[in-house]
């Protein structure tokens, strides 16, 4: 009989990190693929909120969104006229290209849906408008000049 020598293997007290690295790489790839899909915003350069009203040399272009979602356009001194989305893009785009310094303001009805205002902002971006302001009214009892009650 021949004596057999068996080597004793010592137990390793190390953690095998290879599966964790694989999971991390898969998650990294998933996040890299899905992140560009989440960027569905409209770039709007809003004015800083201060108590004084904006004073422009030229009359602003005002797009009003009613509570029912209907659109109205006021160009300069003209009267408020109803308009559809395609007409809004065409008219405002042409007016802003002719007058690049003119202010474009969006006035949304307080009881209207946010979706209407958001769609107008997207339409203005497509029309080539770089800066858009949102109109509001000061609260009741607030002075417009100093911002305090």
Automatic annotation (TrEMBL):
The chain crosses the membrane at residues 20-38. GO terms for cellular component: plasma membrane. It is found in: Cell inner membrane; Cell membrane. It holds the Pfam family ExbD. Keywords: Cell cycle, Cell division, Cell inner membrane, Cell membrane, Membrane, Transmembrane, Transmembrane helix. GO terms for molecular function: transmembrane transporter activity. GO terms for biological process: cell division; protein transport. It is a single-pass membrane protein. Part of the Tol-Pal system, which plays a role in outer membrane invagination during cell division and is important for maintaining outer membrane integrity. PANTHER family: EXBD MEMBRANE COMPONENT OF PMF-DRIVEN MACROMOLECULE IMPORT SYSTEM, TOL-PAL SYSTEM PROTEIN TOLR. The Tol-Pal system is composed of five core proteins: the inner membrane proteins TolA, TolQ and TolR, the periplasmic protein TolB and the outer membrane protein Pal. They form a network linking the inner and outer membranes and the peptidoglycan layer. Belongs to the ExbD/TolR family. This is Tol-Pal system protein TolR. It comes from Dyella thiooxydans.
């Amino acid at each position: 009989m021949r004596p057999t020598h068996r080597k004793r293997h010592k137990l390793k007290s190390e953690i095998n990190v290879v599966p964790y690295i694989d999971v991390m790489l898969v998650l990294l790839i998933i996040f890299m693929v899905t992140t560009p899909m989440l960027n569905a915003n409209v770039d709007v350069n809003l004015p800083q909120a201060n108590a004084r009203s904006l004073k422009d040399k030229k009359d602003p272009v005002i797009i009003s969104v009613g509570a029912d979602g209907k659109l109205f356009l006021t160009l300069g001194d003209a009267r408020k006229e109803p308009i559809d989305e395609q007409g809004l893009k065409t008219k405002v785009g042409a007016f802003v290209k002719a007058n690049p310094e003119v202010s474009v303001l969006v006035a949304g009805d307080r009881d209207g849906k946010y979706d209407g205002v958001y769609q107008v902002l997207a339409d203005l971006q497509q029309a080539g408008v770089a800066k858009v302001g949102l109109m509001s009214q000061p609260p009741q009892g607030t002075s417009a000049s100093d911002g305090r009650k």
